[in-house]
Every structure is written in structure tokens, then in C-alpha cells.
DNA sequence: CTGTTAGCGCTTTCAT
DNA sequence: ATGAAAGCGCTAACAG
């Protein structure tokens, strides 16, 4: 493997001149540059990025760490991040947090391989993030709180979103509303449930225990909990699913039992994932500004990188009700 | 930022001993190791990955380069890659090829930052890949041919898949079948069209020019070409869309005009993206083994990395017909 | 415009 | 079991 030394030798210049020429710097005679470039080509020279990084102590790279690269959230988020990263001339790499303690993310968080990192991953331990956080290494945490002076937080107003969802259902005339919960341990789930309750309380609505069921944040989870709901006999007139994936599983379960949405039961989801537009009926849901989240996150990283310090460390984004066809007026 | 030197000093050992202790090597007295680890903790020491890579000349990292991280293809592919990468104790990072010549992928291809790379990206220039390819740096190209001794190729049998699709349509009794083409420049598109033609020829079926329309491989492309098809008056009894996204756009266009699928027109797609299960009607399509593709790609990388040389440089994967509800018997 | 020089932080022989 | 020393490949003063 040819190094810059070999190139310099073949072009009969010093290593530094070779470096300058190779990196497109102006301060070289065109003739010399050409000679160096030709030598590089002849030797099939490839710069060693690690060596350059080591020397320059910045990598011009950002990392995005997510739990699941194939998740419905990821694709829209990344667009937001990517658009601004690219516009700043930075590279973006993404990796998944699955694989536990000593896997990929560790190296990016702990080994100074990127200039900053954006995290949307709950499997990553607090401890590790805390350990990585330090002056001059911006970390933006999405949908996750951490008590550290060195991290920046972006969250979505889950409570308000859930409140709006239920409020909408009530405005449509629904009075018996069930909550199908996601993972009980999830903060998102808690906030959404709080919003649900707040709206119910405000309108003096009861919610029998049997209509408060919990599953996991997946299509399957939604499917099974809905089956249970159906088996219990009497259905509520509307159901609030803690996320779209669950709602989609729910639609499936209803359809199998010949129960019509929204004629027999109205349902509303949360997230507004791409799929929710395509289900039958199209899913009414609470839109999360995923793109904005990504782009804000990247912006904040760059602001931090340019030395700005933040009085504000928590940014809250608003949700939006998206009316489609899964809720009816009663 | 504390370096290993600082740690060594604080622990009153030499740098080499510190390195050994820090990397969990056996040859240190437990007492010494503890002292080093404590010093590291106190100084909040973080290893500089670039320096380590520079020295070790392997990164234990693979890169996956795709055109679009948010594309429907990506998520299934990555699972396949990730599963085997993880099992080998390697890291996987992904990046998008958008951004042109001197963007992220360049650095991974050309700057020795990873031990190997898997590419599913058509925006990356041949020239660049060729330039990167060399002994000892395995590159696996998906759905793309290149004339280089140093690259390994995996492709899906697009022609056979398309042939099967059309054959199925014909077996259902369809005789007038249109082909809605993707980007004319795409090899995939060519192969699929060849398969289409082969089947048509075999059964002595004509295809009027007006039923051979081309768009782009997107939902929008499918939508617009379908609109055009409709405007031309007489419809074929079945349509083969060059991919699922286009077919989904087509369904949309038909639905807007009150034309029923599959009652009025049967449609079939290609790819079997996740979404195709959820459209109304659910889309009949040709399944591409995306997961298998990813996992095979990763396997081949590791085999190459372990010094194996390949007589075979082209692997062809078979497709599979997935019958859902968008085609009817005539 | 070009060459000399001094490391970046780490790993790794080779002695001890 | 530990330390001294060399050097991975590159960049960036600085001097000429």
C-alpha cells in the first residue's frame, strides 16, 4: 500500500509538498501538482484517513445512532439530519445501537471518531452517554432526558399530542374511549397516557380498567391487545393507540373479526408513520415532526461545534393532528 | 483531553503498560491494571480511535453504502448485513451515497477507514469504485456489474422474475398486458423488460407501443404514467409495473378515476417492499430476497477478509412470486 | 513555492 | 511484569 512518502519520492518532491498538492491547496506550482497527482495515480495511492484525523483532530463527521435502522421513524429523521449535515460539508454515518455494550456506537461515542453525535436510542445506557459527554463533544439526545450539562435535548410534546387526540375524539362525540398502551416502561408511553387522562378528566369521562390495556409498541402488540379487547365483549366507541404500529395491528385484528373501522369503532394512532397513509381506512393520527427533529438536532450540533454555549438545553417540538379516515362522528 | 500518556503518568507506569492494561491484555499484574483503570477514570480518558487504527491497520468495521437510507429497500437489506456483521464482532456503519463525488462514501471507499464495503448505490460512479478496488480490500456490489478482479457481485435474477410475473398474468387469462417501465437507464429496468418481452413473445402476445410507457422508479412516476395510460382511452387488462413503488402510485391513480383494481385492471409489481402488503388491494408482486442479499454480502466480505480468493465472482439470487389481491382471473 | 522538522496518540517489539 | 523506543501516515508550522 503506497503512502504519501512513496508518492513524494516518485514525484521528486518533499512529503509536505505532496500533501499540499494532494489536498488541493493553492500554494503549489501547477506543474508540481500535476507531477504529484500523476505519481499518486501511478502508485494507486490512497490517503489513510485515520492518520489525517489523528493529525487534524477533527473528523468532519457526525454520527447518528438509532435503535433500529429499519424502524419507521428512522427514515424521516435521517432526512432532516442529512440535509443539514450535507449542507455544512460534513459526513454523516449512521449506526444501530443493538448489539449491547461494546458495539459500534461505543466507538463513536467514546473514541473520538466523529465530531458530534445524535442519539435516538433507548437501548444505549445512560451511563455510557454520561461517560461520553464532555465539553466540546456535542451530543444531542432525542426523546430522552439526561442530567448532564454537556448534552442537548429535543423532545416532542407527547402529552399535549395525546391530549389533542383524545380531545378530537371527544369533539366527534365519543364518550367511551380506550387507551391501548405501549411498553409500560417507556417515557413516551407515560406522557401519552398522561395526556389521555388529562383530556378524559377534563370532560369528566371514565375509563374502565378493562379498556386500559398494555402491549408493546409493535404491530403485533397492537394486534394481540385488540384481540383481547374484542374478547372482553363490549367495545368502546373509540380507541387511542399509543402509536401507529399498534393501531395498524389493531385494524388488522378488527378486520379479521368483521368489525368495521370507523363504522363500528373509531381509532386514532400516534406518530404518523409513512404506512399510516396506506392502511384501510387511512389512519387518523398525531403527527410527530420527525424531519424537523433531525434537522434541528443537526443544527444544534453545528452551533455547539462553533463554540456556542446553550442556556437552553431542552427543545420541545409540537405535534399536529392529522385527520384521515379512521374516526367517525357519532 | 487526556491521552494515554497522562494516564500512564498518573498511574506511574509506562505508556506501554498503560496500553496493555487498558486493552484488557492478560500480561499485567492485577494491581497495576486497577491502578491504570482508576487513573483513566479519574482523567476521563477516552482512547483516540484514529490513532489506534493507524497503528493497527485494521478497523474491524464494515461500511454499507446505499443511495437512500430511507428507501424501502434499505431496511430489509441492512438486517441481513447487520446480523452477520454483529456475529463476527465487527462494527457496521452505513452511509448514503447522495452528495456526489467528494462526500461520505468516498472516505470509506478510498481512505481505508473500514475493512470492507458493501455497495447498493447507483449514483456512485464506476470510476470511483474501480479506483477503490484492490487486493485485500473486499468490495461487494449489489445489483451492479463492474469489470474488476477485485470486486464481488451479487445480483437478483430480474429477468426471470419479470418473466414469472408475466407468465402468471398470462396463466390468469390476461392477454393485453402493459409494461410500465422505470428509469430507462437502469439495468434493473432493462432486465425486467427483457423478461417481460420474453414471456410475451413466448405466448405470441403483442404489446402496442402505447402500452409501453416509462417513468421513474417512484410512486409519483407510477402515478403519472398511469394517468397517461388512462387518458389514452382503452386500458390493458393487466399491467406490470417495474417496481412496487410505481405500482402503488398506479393504484392511487386508478382509484382517483374510479377504476377498480383488480376488477377492471390487474396489476403486479416487483420488489415486495413492506408497503405492498398494506395497499388496497394488497399488491401481488415479485419478491426480492433482500435480507438474503445482505447476509450473503456480509458473508462474502468475511470470507474475502480471511484470505479466501474467489473463483466465482457473481452470485445470482432467485426471486419469488407473491400472490396477493391485485390480480384477477379473467 | 518548496523542504525540513516535529509531532498527533497509540501499539508493539525488544530489552530488562 | 514492565519500560524504552520506534514508528504507523499524515499535516502544519517554520524557514528558506
Automatic annotation (TrEMBL), chains A, B:
Residues covered by the HTH lacI-type domain: 2-56
Superkingdom of source: Bacteria
Pfam families reported for this sequence: LacI, Peripla_BP_3
SUPFAM superfamilies hit by this protein: lambda repressor-like DNA-binding domains, Periplasmic binding protein-like I
GO molecular function, one term: DNA binding
Record has Manganese as a keyword: no
Signal sequence residues: none
InterPro entries assigned: HTH_LacI (IPR000843), LacI/GalR-like_sensor (IPR046335), Lambda_DNA-bd_dom_sf (IPR010982), Peripla_BP_I (IPR028082)
Keywords from the named record: DNA-binding, Transcription, Transcription regulation
Transcription keyword on record: yes
PANTHER family: HTH-TYPE TRANSCRIPTIONAL REGULATOR GALS, LACI-RELATED TRANSCRIPTIONAL REPRESSOR
Protein name: LacI family DNA-binding transcriptional regulator
